[in-house]
DNA sequence: CTCCCGATAT
DNA sequence: ATATCAGGAG
């Protein structure tokens, strides 16, 4: 596990590597962001960003999503994958916004997670990115980076990972480091071919050193 | 836990 | 061919 001093070094190094890390899902408001994050489950941001421009041109308000047949919405998001469940969730989500929230995306995490298709991770993204609340959304990248680097234990659940990160990182740095960890995981500490040879954190990364030994002897 | 699912990288 | 992608519902 990383020591306090090492965590400071990791955070500073990531800040140097990705100084302008931010949400890469294109959106113009909280509603579009919510839809985009729901769509992004098990899909790349790049793919979602190919679909959402046309989608947001056609569907501007919650009413627009429920005023078309489910099959039509399914076809409009088909390329992203998991399209049947996502289309259904989006229509339920929009009905709930209209019925319970005056057509507006609520700011409270407790209310956000009640929406169809919105779990803890999506709620954290929305509160953080759209409403400026400190939060650490643990997605596949944050989880992988945290475990490889030793912020937490390999067996920890995503909720445990989030709790540990919140405890070990100052609250005013949550949102920035959250995005930097995503960039670090997406572009450097990748799942399939992590760039350990050029990693400035290799010396304190147990997983990285293990991988280097493996490739050296192969 | 399984299922949902197409696009892309390896 | 297979693994992975800003996960969540049942």
UniProtKB/TrEMBL annotation:
Top enzyme class: lyase
The cofactors named for this UniProt entry are:
[4Fe-4S] cluster
What the entry lists under InterPro entries is as follows:
DNA_glycosylase, Endonuclease-III-like_CS2, Endonuclease3_FeS-loop_motif, HhH-GPD_domain, HhH_base_excis_C, HhH_motif, Nth
EC numbers for this chain: 4.2.99.18
One annotated GO biological process? base-excision repair, AP site formation
- Record PANTHER family: A/G-SPECIFIC ADENINE GLYCOSYLASE/ENDONUCLEASE III, ENDONUCLEASE III
Can you name this protein?
Answer: Endonuclease III
């Amino acid at each position: 596990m990383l020591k306090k001093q090492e965590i400071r070094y990791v955070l500073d190094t990531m800040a140097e590597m990705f100084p302008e890390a931010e949400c890469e899902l294109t959106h113009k408001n909280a509603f579009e962001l919510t839809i985009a994050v729901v769509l992004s489950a098990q899909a790349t941001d790049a793919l979602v960003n190919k679909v959402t421009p046309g989608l947001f041109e056609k569907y501007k308000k919650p009413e627009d999503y429920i005023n078309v047949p489910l099959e039509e919405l399914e076809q409009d998001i088909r390329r992203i994958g998991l399209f049947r469940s996502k289309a259904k969730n989006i229509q339920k989500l929009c009905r709930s916004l209209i019925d319970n929230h005056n057509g507006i995306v609520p700011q409270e995490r407790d209310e956000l997670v009640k929406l169809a298709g919105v779990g803890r991770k999506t709620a954290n993204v929305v509160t953080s990115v759209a409403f400026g609340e400190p939060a650490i959304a643990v997605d596949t990248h944050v989880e992988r980076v945290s475990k490889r680097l030793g912020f937490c234990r390999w067996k920890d659940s995503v909720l445990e990972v989030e709790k540990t990160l919140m405890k070990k990182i100052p609250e005013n740095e949550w949102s920035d480091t959250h995005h930097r960890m995503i960039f670090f995981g997406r572009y450097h500490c990748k799942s399939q071919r992590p760039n350990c040879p050029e990693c400035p954190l290799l010396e304190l990364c147990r997983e990285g050193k293990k991988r280097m030994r493996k490739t050296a002897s192969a």
